[in-house]
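ERR on first pass: missing label on line 2. Operator R.T. fixed the label and resubmitted. Corrected input:
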Amino acid sequence: MNAPALTTLDLAIAASLLLLNVAVSWGFRLGLEKRLAVAALRMVVQLALAGWLLQILFQQTSPVWTAAMALVMAAAAAHEVVTRQRRRFAGVAPYAVGMGTLLFVGTAFTVIAVGGLIGAEPWTSPRFFLPVLGMVLGNAMTGVSLVLDAVTAAAERERGSIEARLALGATRFQAFDSVLRRGLETGLMPILNAMAVAGVVSLPGMMTGQILAGADPLEAAKYQMLILFVIGAATALSVVLAGFAAVWLLTDDRHRLRLDRLQLVRSQT
Amino acid sequence: MLRIENLKAGDLPPLSFKLADGECLAVDGPSGAGKSRLLRAIADLDPAAGHVFLDGAERREMPGNAWRSLVRYVSAEPAWWTETAREALPETVAPDRVRRLCDALGFDAATLDRPLSQASTGERQRMALVRALVDDPRVLLLDEPTAALDSATAALVEELIRYQMLSGRLVILVTHDTPMADRLSAMRLELAPPRPLPQRDTSVPRGPFAGHAA
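pass 2 clean. output:
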């Protein structure tokens, strides 16, 4: 009982539904037509490429190609983390933080989930490894972006009180403790919310996909729980790592606040 | 004894001087001359080339936070990170000592328990002095400590500074109050007005709110 295959015509009809967005943009003079077209085109090209690439990857079992794909995915996630920052550290530091955190956490938790919990044979099997890695990376990426943005924004806004604590002899992590705590909270909020409403407000994507593909809904729900536990833990660890890295970069070894290492990025259009 | 050799604070010319225990150096100069920057550089809050020794130990031989436990910068516009000043005091400090400092500065110690958002500028400035003095630093870097105070309260602050000097502490005092500077210090440092076209200083944050910082 697999889902029926989609024809090009089905997709074309579905794409025409976007005309509603065009109508909204035009009717309210939002001027979003061009961005809408670009976004839709990107979505089509990226998903087609991903499907095509996975098709090729699934036909072989070499862990080397799986690892290469994992690297590309982590790099794309790290790039996304950097472009989402309104205040950016100069140089390669933000890429290093994003890539280091996401690659480490993504790999570790995907290995735990696929090898340890799901028990796929072999655990490097791209059919299991890459989709799970994608879900872990996607959520960790959101958390890392949020915590970096929250900590850098707070460091600028609360410069006076951070320096007041430094002047009184606090270490850099003592001076940042409330800023860091609020940053971690911000970074963890989306995954907490996602868990709280899963199955009630939203049916998570993986569960929906498995059900559409003909799986037993209860089995799909169990898989979804397992994935959400793994994603939750992975997000927590990456948020903490990125939060500490942000404080580390915003200060120096003399425990000074170094806002000069930040540069404001023009808000993206 | 505080010894400063060729300290380059921002775009100020290199400075060298010595300050013995119980002495006070008064610093004056027009706005933008770099008075606060000099104090921040001595407290090691901004990177600055040069050497600073306290009692024979060079500051780079100790961590930045340990240095600032000894060499205490008190900003002209004190900022807080707690609801009340009391929460910002170190836990180990004796309540008695806090009360004596409040008495000396002419306000009730209960003020420390009121929300800081309701305190006046002068109260906040005096509470910042209490916070800065309560754990006995060796050197006090005071940035216009009487700027927001009436003359009677300013006299109390002056008295407290004198008492700190008598107990052997070293004071560097930024003030426009020349008579007070004359009474407290034998040493004077007059900073020149800023150059008409100051060079861009990379130690100044370039963020969107940088202009608001002291």
